[in-house]
Specification:
The protein has 107 residues and is mostly helical. 66% of the residues lie in helices and 0% in strands. InterPro entries: Asn/Gln_tRNA_amidoTrase-B-like, YqeY/Aim41, YqeY/Aim41_N.
Length: 107
């Protein structure tokens, strides 16, 4: 899925599709954030100093984890679009719906 998202981002950039660029970058960032180890994960390890001391192994996400993250991104955009619509901000709502549609292609 990550490979498909990166490929999609490259195509969106080449096609200058701002909505797809925004949606895919956001999804990739959410995936990167989910892979970051928590502070608690390394709280019991000793403190290292020197070259390589800032290198920490990232968490491994399964395909199901990646799908769940993209699903959550779609859900957040859909809910926000509904709220914008309720507030009379149709343009913002439509943009979020378009971003959600882009991300649905990767599920």
């Amino acid at each position: 899925m990550r490979t498909d998202l990166r490929r999609g981002l490259t195509q969106a950039i080449k096609g200058k599709d701002r909505i797809a660029i925004s949606a895919i970058r956001s999804a990739l960032a959410a995936i990167d954030n989910a892979e970051a180890p928590s502070v608690e994960h390394h709280a019991t390890t000793s403190i290292a100093v020197g070259v390589g001391s800032t290198e920490v192994e990232r968490l491994h996400l399964t395909d199901a984890d990646l799908r769940a993250i993209v699903d959550k991104e779609v859900q957040q955009r859909t809910e926000a679009a509904e709220e914008y619509e309720r507030l009379g901000r149709a343009e913002q709502a439509e943009r979020l719906r378009a971003e959600a549609a882009v991300l649905r292609r990767y599920k």
